[in-house]
């Protein structure tokens, strides 16, 4: 599908709702760039840790990432090793380096800093201004891409989301119990919805898709068909 202006699909939703996988597959089907905003916060945490900067120092971290060149690309041949996106920082592929537990925890810590969020939002908006994107996160529909043509809130039952995440962790060889994963999901939901800066929320104009009883393929089909219908409407 081709578009005369960049077409933006913004997807928000709680952890383990399937945002990453769905976004990656939708991007593949449409020939769009998949942008994982969470990966950018991981990059910020990785850079801060590498430079031994305190994760509580928002202004200092913002300065560090403002100087960094962060690129996100769809995986090319030779990069299809399970990653959803290829993340390059200052010319170095850090796609897996940012997926460690230490960096993940650091990302949650630094995400509360408004200075950090401001820098990363500008970088995300710049990416979406020059190409068709599927961008997912927790504040994309109203903070990052408020003018997106299609806004989606992807959600699902907490128990089902915990089962998905537990299976994912087991596949990666991580030894954890379902009850631990479920509690982590519940705690993350509370943290994301109650945080003072850009909390997780469904805006009125967002299309809510509950993935509890849907397969990944069904969700992808729904979104791709919606974009096709919107495109056909624009052509009339």
Please describe what this structure looks like.
By secondary structure, the protein is of the alpha/beta class. The chain folds into two domains: 7-32 and 132-227, Rossmann fold (3-Layer(aba) Sandwich); 36-131, Rossmann fold. 49% of the residues lie in helices and 14% in strands. It has nine helices and eight strands. The strands form two sheets. The protein has a five-stranded parallel beta sheet, sandwiched between helices. Strands 3-4-5 form a three-stranded antiparallel beta sheet, covered by helices on one side. Strand 4 (86-89) and strand 5 form a beta hairpin. Helix 2 (37-50) crosses helix 5 (114-128). The longest helix has 20 residues, at 216-235. It is globular, with a radius of gyration of 17 Å.
Number of individual domains: 2
As a percent range, the share of helical residues equals: 40-55%
Shape: globular
Tell me the β content: 5-15%
What order do the helices and strands come in, and which of them pair?
Blueprint: E1 8-12, H1 19-30, E2 33-36, H2 37-50, H3 58-66, E3 70-73, E4 86-89, E5 92-93, H4 101-110, H5 114-128, E6 133-137, H6 140-144, E7 150-155, H7 158-171, H8 178-194, E8 207-210, H9 216-235
Parallel strand pairs: 1-6, 1-7, 2-6, 7-8
Antiparallel strand pairs: 3-4, 4-5
Write a concise synopsis of the structure shown:
This protein is α/β, with parallel strands linked by helices.
Summary keywords:
globular, 5-stranded parallel β-sheet, 236 residues, 2 domains, Rossmann fold, alpha/beta
């Amino acid at each position: 599908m081709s578009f005369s202006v960049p077409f933006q699909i913004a997807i928000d939703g709680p952890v383990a709702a399937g945002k990453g996988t769905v976004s990656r597959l939708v991007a593949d089907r449409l020939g769009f760039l998949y942008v994982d905003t969470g990966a950018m916060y991981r990059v910020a945490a990785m850079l801060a840790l590498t430079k031994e900067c305190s994760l509580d120092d928002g202004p200092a971290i913002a300065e560090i990432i403002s100087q960094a060149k962060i690129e996100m690309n769809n995986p090319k041949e030779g990069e299809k090793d399970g990653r959803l996106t290829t993340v390059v920082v200052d010319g170095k592929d850090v796609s897996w380096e940012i997926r460690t537990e230490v960096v993940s925890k650091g990302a949650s810590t630094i995400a509360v800093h408004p200075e950090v969020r401001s820098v990363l939002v500008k970088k995300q908006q710049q990416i979406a201004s020059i190409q068709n994107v599927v961008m997912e996160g927790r504040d994309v529909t109203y903070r990052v891409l408020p003018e997106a043509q299609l806004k989606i809130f992807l959600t699902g039952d907490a128990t089902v989301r915990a089962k998905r995440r537990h299976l994912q962790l087991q596949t990666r060889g991580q030894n954890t119990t379902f009850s631990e994963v479920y509690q982590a999901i519940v705690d993350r939901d509370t943290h994301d919805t109650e945080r003072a800066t850009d909390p997780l929320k469904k805006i009125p104009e967002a299309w809510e898709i509950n993935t509890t009883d849907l397969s990944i393929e069904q969700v992808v089909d729904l979104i791709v068909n919606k974009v096709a219908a919107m495109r056909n409407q624009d052509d009339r």
